[in-house]
Write a structure and sequence with these properties.
The chain has 117 residues and is α/β, with parallel strands linked by helices. Helices cover 27% and strands 37% of the residues. The strands form two sheets. Strands 3-4-6-5 form a four-stranded mixed beta sheet, covered by helices on one side. Strands 1-2 form a two-stranded parallel sheet. The chain is globular and about 35 Å long.
Length: 117
C-alpha cells in the first residue's frame, strides 16, 4: 500500500496509524501527489483520490497520471470524493460508476477501471 500526502503533519498521522496496524507494507510518501505518481512502480487494485477541495482539478489530473503511467490493474476500484456543490464526471471512458452517494455536503463514488470497455 502506498499513501501520497503533501502535508507533513497528516503524513505523521498516517505513519502513526500504520504503526498501530503493525504493518511494514504501508509506504507513506510526503510530497506533491502528481509528481509522486511519476515515481511509482507498482500497479494498483484500489486507489483513493481525495485531493483538497480547493483544488478540484487534482481529481482528474491524479487519475489521468495513473492512467498514462499504466499503474491500474484491470478491474481496479477508484474512490473519488468531491464537494456536494460541484459536479464530477468520470475522466475516462474506461471507468464506470459502481456506486455514487451524497453524505451531508460531500459526494463520493467508487468507479471500476476496465480496459475491455
Amino acid at each position: 500500500m502506498v499513501a501520497l500526502e503533501q502535508q507533513r503533519q497528516a503524513a505523521a498521522g498516517l505513519r502513526a496509524a500504520a504503526a498501530r496496524l503493525d504493518s511494514a507494507a504501508i509506504e507513506i510518501i510526503v510530497g506533491d501527489a502528481l509528481r509522486s505518481i511519476d515515481g511509482l512502480q507498482d500497479r494498483f487494485d484500489i486507489v483513493f483520490i481525495d485531493p483538497p477541495y480547493a483544488e478540484p482539478q487534482l481529481r482528474r489530473l491524479a487519475f489521468q497520471r495513473l492512467e498514462a503511467r499504466d499503474l491500474l490493474n484491470d478491474g481496479a476500484r477508484i474512490y473519488f470524493e468531491w464537494p456536494g456543490t460541484e459536479s464530477f464526471e468520470l475522466p475516462s471512458a474506461s471507468l464506470h460508476w459502481l456506486k455514487r452517494k451524497t453524505a451531508g455536503q460531500v459526494q463520493y463514488g467508487i468507479a471500476e477501471w476496465r480496459l475491455s470497455r
